[in-house]
Amino acid sequence: MAKVTELVQGLAAPMAAAQGCSLWDVEYVREAGQWFLRVYIDKPEGVSIHDCEAVSRPLSDALDQADPIEGSYVLEVSSAGADRPLKKPEHFEQFIGAEVEVRLYRPADGRKDHVGTLLAYQDGDVTIAAPQGERTFPKKDVARVRLSVRF
């Protein structure tokens, strides 16, 4: 049987596309005793609250009809955000040349967090150009990669 997130992706992707958006990611997580189904959408000119609502309403109806989740949960539809996590190969490909933050499970060079320009992503390994030079982090060491935002 498919995972909840995969089932929801299949429902949400065409609904996002119908609103001129793309589906970025789906999470199904438990926080403080409550289940949350989070659907992240994106579009080149940015996501508005109206986009979120336009995807949320029909998705909620489709989820009620398909009933892929036992028990109660909170549905949230939102923008992927400026500091969005990069999880899928296509996410990394889209942001080659962008500044990213790489968080490691264990420190490397005395730090868990490394910031630099994303140069490559291959089989889960992440290569960045940082002030200290080019660095490749093996997949097994990488906890999270997200876009870096500076104000």
Automatic annotation (TrEMBL):
Cytoplasm as a keyword of this entry, yes or no, is yes
Provide the coiled-coil residue spans: none
Q: Which domain of life is it from?
A: Bacteria
Q: Which organism is it from?
A: Lawsonibacter hominis
User: What compartments host this protein?
Assistant: Cytoplasm
Protein name as it appears in the record:
Ribosome maturation factor RimP
Which ranges does the record mark as transmembrane? none
Q: Which GO terms describe its cellular component?
A: cytosol
Gene this chain is encoded by: rimP
Q: Does the keyword Metal-binding apply?
A: no
What the entry lists under Pfam families is as follows: DUF150_C, RimP_N
Taking every annotated instance into account, which residue ranges of this chain make up the domain Ribosome maturation factor RimP N-terminal? 12-83
- Record-annotated Ribosome maturation factor RimP C-terminal domain positions: 86-151
Ordered alphabetically, the record's keywords are: Cytoplasm, Ribosome biogenesis
Q: Which GO terms describe its biological process?
A: ribosomal small subunit assembly; translation
